[in-house]
Design brief:
The structure holds two protein chains of two kinds. Chain A is of the alpha+beta class. Chain A has helices at residues 2-10, 22-27, 59-77, 143-147; strands at residues 29-34, 37-42, 49-51, 56-57, 85-93, 102-111, 115-123, 130-139. The interface between A and B is large, with 44 and 43 residues. Chain A: It comes from Candidatus Defluviicoccus seviourii.
Chain lengths: 148, 179
């Protein structure tokens, strides 16, 4: 899979990673690149609704977008040699996530040899009005190496 | 009597009104109906198997659609986040008498062990503290054995009751998100 990811990176098509991931197709996770780097997208789908009265997106799916954006950011914007493995994720829900596409961009706060700390913010209309923000830790070495 | 698997009277523990047949109380019925009405939960196949004031359990059957790592077939962390967020929110609704709305303020998930491909994932949660507007909840995701957890969650939820809404019609839950 890393080989495929490396090929996607070389071809400048990191967003194509999503085509390998069934869950991305299930909830509508996509990505594109702008002048500031990779942006993950959660397409609006009726099946992502968490509150039918407010027609708001399920907080768990917003969490999935943030986690996914963080991993894609590490794969696209850093030279990690493994698929980063999530250690933990802490999400702050800031606004109701309406029935529309949601975007998320990650930022590496610190990348060590073994662990990366990534911040992610998600928004709908404008990044200045985030709907959710998260920080997450990822393990950058394979499990065998981590425990030995 | 509202008891969890350990036989603890959760209502009494939290100073909540004692409900004689809590699994059939109005707040449980309301919480169950709210869960059944969540399109995303239906879409990914969540089943609410147990619910009482202060505690509940949901099962997420394994499906290849939930795979996040195609090399191993392991379920995407996002599905586990949605499962734990839902479980925690439903338990809040089941715990608060007259609860009309619940929104997640924050949720932290520790991924302790990868889920085993092919196995259903269960999540249970308990609401361990309630204030006038905020509920504090912890949850765990696992396959069969709670002692071998896949993930732990701790979350804070804001809620509004019908009484509070009548007093202050525009109860502001805008800080959170529906769970």
């Amino acid at each position: 899979m890393l080989k495929t990811i490396a090929e996607f990176k070389r071809a400048g098509r990191v967003e194509a990673i999503n085509t390998l991931i069934p869950y991305a197709g299930l909830v509508g996770l996509e990505a594109f690149t702008d002048e500031d780097g990779l942006v993950a997208v959660l397409r609006f789908r009726e099946t992502n609704i968490g509150n039918p009265v407010l027609r708001a997106v399920h907080g768990g799916v917003v969490g999935a977008l943030l986690e996914h954006a963080a991993i894609l950011h590490l794969l696209a914007e850093t030279d990690v040699q493994v698929v980063p493995k999530i250690i933990n994720l802490s999400v702050d829900y800031l606004r109701s996530c309406r029935a529309a596409d949601t975007f998320a961009r990650g930022r590496v706060i610190r990348q060590g040899r073994r662990v990366a700390n990534v911040r992610v913010e998600a928004w709908q209309d404008t990044p200045e009005r985030p709907v959710a923000a998260a920080h997450a830790h990822f393990l950058l070495i394979d499990e065998g190496a981590a425990t030995s | 009597m509202a008891q969890n698997a350990l036989g603890i009277d959760l209502c009494r523990m939290r100073g909540l009104p004692h409900v004689s047949d809590s699994t059939h109380s109005p707040q449980i019925a309301r919480a169950r109906a709210a869960f059944e009405g969540i399109p995303h939960c239906q879409h990914i196949g969540m089943q609410l198997t147990e619910l009482m004031p202060g505690w509940g359990m949901i099962t997420l059957p394994y499906s290849p659609r939930l795979i996040g790592d195609p090399r191993s077939g392991v379920v995407h962390g996002g599905a586990i986040t949605a499962l734990l967020d839902t479980m925690c929110g439903v338990v809040v609704m089941a715990t608060i008498p007259d609860c009309q709305e619940v929104a997640t303020l924050d949720l932290r998930i520790d991924y302790l062990h990868p889920a085993t491909p092919g196995l259903d994932i269960r999540a249970s949660a308990e609401c361990f503290k309630v204030t006038r507007a905020i509920a504090f909840v912890r949850g765990v995701a696992f396959h069969e054995d709670k002692a071998a957890p896949i993930a732990h969650a701790i979350g804070t939820f804001v809620f509004a009751t019908a009484t509070a809404q009548a007093r202050q019609p525009a109860a502001d839950l805008s800080g959170g998100q529906p769970c």
